[in-house]
Amino acid sequence: MTAELDVLAAPARPGRASPPAGRLGRLAQQPFLVLSWIIVLVVIGWAVAPGLFTSYGPYDGDSAAGFAPPSAEHWFGTDRLGRDLFARSVYGAHTTLTATLLAVLVAFGIGTVVGLIAGFGGGIVDTAIMRVVDVFLAIPSLLLAMVVVSVLGYSTQNIALAVGVSSIASFARVMRAQVLAVMTQDYVKAAYGLGGGRLRVLVRHVVPNSLNSVIALAALEVGTAVLAVASLGFLGYGAPPPQPEWGLLVAEGRDYVAVHPWASIMPGLALALVVISTHRISTSYRKEHRR
Amino acid sequence: MSDLRSSIERAAPRRKKWPWAAGAVVVLLIAASGVALTRGAGSGDQGATGGTPVRGGTLRFALIDYQRSPDPQWGTNYAESLIGDNITDKLTWQDPDTGEITPWLATSWEYDKDLTEFTFHLRTDVTFSDGTPFDSQAVKANFDQYVNGDEKLGILPNGAALMPGYLGTRTPDEYTAVIRFKKPLASFLQASSFTANAGPGFLSLSTLKLSAKDRTDPAKVIGTGPFVYESWKPQVRTVLVKRKGYHWAPPALRHKGEAYLDKIVFNTIPEASVRTGSLESGALDATLDVGTTDEKSLADQGFKIIHRAVSGTAIFFNLNSQLFPTDDIAVRRAIQLGWNRDALRKTVLTDSYSVATSVLEPSVLGYADYSGSVLKYDPRQAEQLLEKAGWKEGPDGIRAKDGKKLVVKLLGINNLVVNKPAYESIQQDLKKTGIDLQLTVLPIPDYAANVAKAKTDWNITAANRSRNDPAVLNLQYSPLLGNGSYLTEDSAGIDVDEVTKTLGKLERTLDPAARKQYAKAAQDLLLDKYALVSPVYNPSQVIAQAGHVHGIVFDAQSRNHFVNTWKNNGK
Amino acid sequence: MLRYLALKAGRALFVVWAAFTLTFVLLFVLPADPVDLLFDPAELNTVTPEVREQVADGYGFDKPVLLQYLARLGHALTGDFGSSVQSGRSVTATILDVLPSTLVLAFGALVLALLIGFVIALAATSTRRAWVRNLAEALPSGAVSVPVFLSGILVLQIFSFQLGWFPAFGDQGARSLVLPMITLAVPVSGPIAQLLVRSFATEFRSGYVTTSWAKGATRGGIVVRDVFRNASLPALTIAGITFGNLIAGSVITETVFARQGIGRMTQAAINTLDIPLVQGIVVLVAASFAVINLVVDLIYPLLDPRLRATLATGSPLTA
What we know:
In chain A, 68% of the residues lie in helices and 0% in strands. Chain A has helices at residues 20-28, 31-48, 85-121, 123-138, 141-152, 156-165, 168-183, 186-193, 198-234, 246-253, 262-288. Chain C: One of its GO terms (biological process) is transmembrane transport.
């Protein structure tokens, strides 16, 4: 499991959308950011329409062509059953991204609501919720995910759920801190002063202005979840065969690393690029909304 | 020579003296290989054939598992049985080549006609490593605890499955033990030599009095074997040193006196690439659990690959006879016929493994070859069978009958590296005949949890059973015991009584000719008449070893014995 | 002050108790029966119900769940977590046996991770070249983007098998520690480096630095003298997260490098549903986490001069 990069930055200021032209202009000055977006979009393309990117099927093995090295014909080489590893990576993007999305949704959805209730509710509600969050924070997420998978059983969905559940606490904590920070801002006090109802203030001011950091965290969580699924695959909690899944491709390829290193390295490279890209996007999002 | 060796050992960890030590090692290596060359040896690897055995030295060995406790009568993994087999001895030794039961701690034995009473005459010169004698009292105390366990001490009934119906042991004199059973148990003779999981190796009376907790102190676990514990570090390594004065190796091994090696270090290395790399770099002398893809490159580099198939059953697909759709014999037969043995051999297996040609592995008495009849790749016949039984191909290529799809759910274990790719290869083939084989291949604990629900949830359970005796079929498939195919009154078209009786006969005689005949009848029923099992491949234990290692023995259950092992690289 | 202390300590205790209870509940709803795992899977169908019952009875698994919970809790309070289902040894002794290996590895990795973090932050802050800064800022993401098991195996292939510089397995001697330490330190260094880069940058722009500029100090001088000390403090705030990363990383590192330790034991314990052992480990980890956070909470105000001043003037601390 990966380290959790901290995104609890300075308290958010009231956000103002920049004019679109300015945003594009800034993008052009940041080639790495552009590259990151391209990588992420390509991978999303793999997940949505894999057939456009490869002519091989993920399950079509050619028993005579096992363990072929990368070539013009097989970009990533083939696995022991002769299946094209590039095709398996492309089709695997669907499984991996679906699982990641589910994990992020669970963590983001539950974590944000819990954090919002704690921060906005205050008092005993806050105390009760945050003590529970403390407990979840105290157990390293990989450990928690391992136990949750053991309980739920083995499937890609359950692994995604486990990874999501193990990140709820981080989201709740960040959301709560943001809510507290926003509520001390003058404009929120002013909104109260103007006679705004509690709910109205919550929906119009607190939620939108608190979400920025959490959205940045969600972008990070995409990378974290991809890696977490890979680590669980390594520890033997993998998706059922023959379904291709990135983490599992890396984990299964590692046994042949001395003889056929690409079986592990090529999907590993794809995985690392996606994680770095999501981090870059997360950072730029956060920077943009802090100014 | 030994002085020089010990000075090298002492000097090795010190950095400054490193070049000297390395130089000395190189000189010794060259000398040793020179000696080996002039003798023209080095091709054989079985004990006496590899040249003149050298005494002394430490064998650095690696395997994937570790001992969770040093207690040799407990344990369900390979490290536990293998190490346990080297610190304890058994009553008898089963010849791995012929399957014959030969003397070990018992010099001779006889049994009554009913096969309910087995009398063993023991060697009189055997002692435990604490100096106490091995006698009939020790046999009785061991078997009593082995079968019944001891609740107070936290000792499990480890031998309950191996010795069903055990009544007790009589000790007419100091060196005679009579073991008695409720029902005929022909397989007990083989059980007296059993070396796989939770084997009946003898422990001293002082060890038997210890609780499970106290047995985690390796110094207190006392056997009669050729090695004794030096240390045990869970997850990392077990170190054995040779037992001084040992001279009762199984006569069949033709080994005189103590073990050749001074010491064996069993390193636990979970990662396949690390085991292989460490062997290549010289940090290990030999390693078990060699990855199939590494075999060839290791052999190319001059390492010796030795292997033996695990005697017992093949890796089997046990077909659930009373659960849709495997309750249809046409489906069961189509699964037997629908996958390509050649493709499996080429893409997944190496020369160390073989495609199963019966539910029994070929070294087991009574094995018969079914590769020409029911266990062959014949997709056309499989399709015809399914068509005839009303399974029509759907738009997605998967067959269906009465609106229900031909989906077959398999439960397997991922403990052997070959399992997952082998099952995936079969999955690919069966799909072409219109069978959707869905795989769930899990670690052992989760497999165990699911086996409890196998009768109602899984069409196929895939595993194997290590036991070099044809009665393994009775244990695994008898409706009264393992009931591997879940035979009940709901199993359409199967005479359950017939199966019970046919398999049961294997426990009623020790006459080899009769047992062969009964084993054939049992295989005919399981594979042909009722098609209850589709065996896949014969699992193998594979060791890669450096050229200077000789005489690692595979026993009848393919566990390794090191009493014969020696090294000639001077370390 | 005393009230503050009591409150924080109370919270820490609550965390430990809740972790204990949570694992108990989770493990009790597990689909598998721990008793099944004591037998050879191939023989499972042959094990008679009587034998099963007898075994369950021996471990106390047959008592009502609440009674089991209370009994375990009572013992746990005295530091007794029962015996491992698998080996029969006491959980406390089993954990204490392997704890030192993990501590050495984790401590070494932590020092190395801090070193990496500071080097990256210094490089990012003290350089005038944009590309160096960009690269240094990108490194933390890179550090956490490769699965630990893959980096571990690749490191082994290169430094142990190709070059032969370090042993590949085992835990004898300092040299066997180098590769696992690096493998574990890299992902742990990611968040530390990121935080340091940010706080270095913040400090660099702050008032007292401007004063130093005015006094004619050099860029490097400022970084070392002023920024370094003040900017390092925030690293303490992620001590808890770092601890969690070290533990999670050790699960994988210890497996790849075949080392003894808490991480590998955790995996084995979860895999074999060794309830007492899992519980002992989780409680130990949660307690360590709580203690670390408690200590950080208590000493942080003492270390930061600005906060110390705030405390002295009696103005309330902000949330």
